[in-house]
């Protein structure tokens, strides 16, 4: 949905979930190749034959997140000494097999933040190491959905790979936030975050177990809502003007016990808070493990993160003012799906919505990738760049003095011009590295000395040992940290920090030599 809004054309969509495939076909009838396939068995060569071996610019996907989720910390299933084998953690390799076959210019993997720490970061590391071996420059991007207008607290981990002969892709350059929280420093043109009530406040009130699969909108409530909030969400995102009827606004039934517990909650409060102030909750769940088991959402704030578990009972998504959990349509609006988007019956709908990337996030990412690809074709990155070394020898001549200053902890004394030449040299010599990755190196260190490498013979400390996660040589990380410091202090321009011309020159030199 988001990539389509950003101007991309979908060549194929694949899932093994029947409800997901049917929902996709219903909402995107123009996509020719919508396949119900198990990627453990369906090989990329078959898809290549189906597509006629057309060029694929971008591959996006979400290998299952349950193997990495923080929700499974309690039983040790994903973390620590009690790590339990979960084959879903290795499905990223099936994703990478498609990357290896089609060689897209960009790939994006979306997962939960827990992938960074699952098994001590092993899988987060493996994805990046194996993608770099395929010829990609890889880095992680943490996405905060509310920064793009999504009315919830959702945060997700992206792993982005670009062909290493291309310029540098980074969120700082290409994924620009559009919204800001009230307590965050505001920048020009950033709008206030979208609140839960702006997303759902116009919908007809209903009771638990009630509602209609299809009904007219409440015109008076909608009029009042427009008067208060304008149309930035209802029109621009939800596109209510394109939907003839309001659909999927049906509340699930709840037991009398649960409804009594709902009624004890104040707006914006969860069950542990209610119990602490003296309420007698009757729910039978472990009150230490499930302290927020019941949560009444707040109108003026962001909704809790929508996850697939909302399909189970909805107890963490109690309506701010009504004694029931949120409906399918309300949850879809919280994820930024337009009102015309059609969903199946309630339980699979909740699961599909919870598993989805919010369309507004997909659109922001898509617009960034599209701009990046257009600039890659136009080579606009080559303009106004810092000096690029013409040879490995010149790169070493520029880098070694700054490397020496780093060893003496005198990097801050290095002049801007001298630092930029050294920084460009790192990009030239290590063109497969991403500048942002140097801040996230992990715990594993490898000694990878290639005796055939001239650089290794001349300056071995600039080559190895390396941090396995980022691929960065340990000795160069202090220079990268200084680069980030200067960037944050506005002592380096963004385009100078990402110095794409140097990386591309280094990649071209490597291809020529080999």
Task: Walk me through what this model shows.
The chain is an alpha/beta fold and 514 residues long. The protein folds into three domains: 2-175 and 359-377, Vaccinia Virus protein VP39 (Rossmann fold); 196-343, Alpha-Beta Complex (DNA Methylase, Chain A, domain 2), CATH 3.90.120; 379-513, no CATH class. It is 36% helix and 11% strand. It has 19 helices and twelve strands. It has a four-stranded mixed beta sheet, with helices on one face. A two-stranded parallel ribbon has the order 1-2. Helix 2 links the parallel strand 1 (12-15) and strand 2 (33-36). Helix 14 (392-407) packs across helix 15 and helix 15 (416-429) runs parallel beside helix 19. The longest helix has 20 residues, at 359-378. The chain is globular, with a radius of gyration of 25 Å.
Number of domains: 3
Principal-axis shape equals globular
Enumerate the strands of the largest sheet in spatial order, edge to edge or round the barrel: 3-4-6-5
* Assembly category: single chain
Radius of gyration based on Cα positions: 25 Å
**What's the CATH class of the largest domain, please?**
Alpha Beta
Strand content: 5-15%
Main traits of this protein?
single chain; 514 residues; alpha/beta; Rossmann fold; DNA Methylase, Chain A, domain 2; 3 domains; four-stranded mixed β-sheet; two-stranded parallel sheet; 11% strand
